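Researcher: Before we compare anything, I want clean individual predictions. No alignment, no superposition, just each chain on its own. First chain goes here; please echo the sequence and then give the structure tokens.
Model: Echoing the first chain and its structure:
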Amino acid sequence: MLALEALGWALTDERRADRLLSLTGLTPERLRHGLDDRSVQAAVLEFLAAHEPDLIAAADALNTRPEVLVAAAQDLNA
């Protein structure tokens, strides 16, 4: 659930959404059809974890801590 909330947050800004697609290699269709795919969810969280300003802003917006988002990414990759 956290990864989906993070994705929703990431897509609220067009430049950030474009960067997400560019850096993860995901396509809009892959996002739409892969929302329940752990690898897609992990890619979104790893994208945030790789850019501290986004990580902190996302954590604030989602009312969580940055380390929780990072741990969620690691859990999804396990």
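Researcher: Okay. Second chain, same rules.
Model: Second chain and its structure:
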Amino acid sequence: MIESKKDAKDFEYIANTYARFPVLIEKGSGIRLWDEDGKEYLDFTSGIAVCNLGHSNKEIIETVKEQLERLFHISNLYWTGPQLELARLLCENSCMDQCFFCNSGAEAVEAAIKLCRKFGHDTKGSDAYEIITLQGSFHGRTLAAITATGQPVYQRGFEPLPDGFTHVPINDIKALELAFGPRTCAIILEPIQGEGGVRPLDDEFLFAARRLCDDHNCLLVFDEVQVGMGRTGTLFAYEQTPVEPDVMCLAKALGNGLPIGAMLAKKNVMSHFTPGTHASTFGGNPVVCKAAIKVLEIMLRPGQLEKVREKGVLFRQKLLNLQNEIDTIKEIRGKGLIQAIEFDHEVPEIANFLIKKGFLTILSHKKILRLLPPFQVEEGHMDALIQAIKDFFKK
């Protein structure tokens, strides 16, 4: 149990769905967080790829304050200026034409799944509902999203799962080709698998996915919930691949901490969503849209994403140097400011060790340290984390 100034009974009112660290965070600024006792932490998680522009970003705070004084909420039966402006910014700076707004990454994926099935029904017939996804993927926690997710650990206990999903190994072109059939309507993939261990997809595999979708009149969907919004050093991760998707899912860093999701698509694809086919009460809320507009404005400033790329190269080189010093490091993977250290054996205690040293990190599969610092991370922060990792292996 956490030692806290709060009443111990207060902790019993929260559902036990997270294996939480014994820390109660009170405030944050940039890359730094402080707990209720005033202890400082360097956040190498960004709230799991959410606060890309740092905690308590002052520009976003001022923008939200102004919008709160104008309009909190209005039904999507009406238009609002922030929603229109955000959709325009997203489309003008991507290969997409139209947006559907929701509240989270899982909802964006759900919207994409529904759009793919509707597309399949409309263009190929009611049997064209099957979607191919990848082993090791992660697409969210709803029933359809965990079924799309290629990790059985998230599916156990929730059977029977929805029908119509096939999983193939990452970067296996032959398996992908064999998975296609007359019932296939789409492929959904992450250009870099996030929760799966920061695993980039090969260009050849992406070429094959694009070709197969074109040949079979299917949709290619990129789930960029974790790797979009500047995380890889370009606004969207697909920009560093040789292909363009037909549909793209965003969330997390789009609102820098406020809940917003978006499913973007080409106009000819989104046309299969007509009034009444999909909806969201809070999707496109004017407050969170205004925050997302400011997020985009900041990210699109000259040199902003170039700095992310430069810091990513620096961070990766430091991690590769660390690999040369620590024999148990199997591989360093990543792009921009999403990097991972994979160890050759399970190290379940490393995350607790690092948090005691003042660093927040994410441990996947008990042996992959996933590192996603806010864009304000500096070389000194990187060096401090790497020294702490060295200390762990010296103990």
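Researcher: What stands out in the second chain?
Model: Residues 304-325 form the longest helix (22 residues). Additionally, The domain at 71-299 is CATH 3.40.640.10 (Aspartate Aminotransferase; domain 2).
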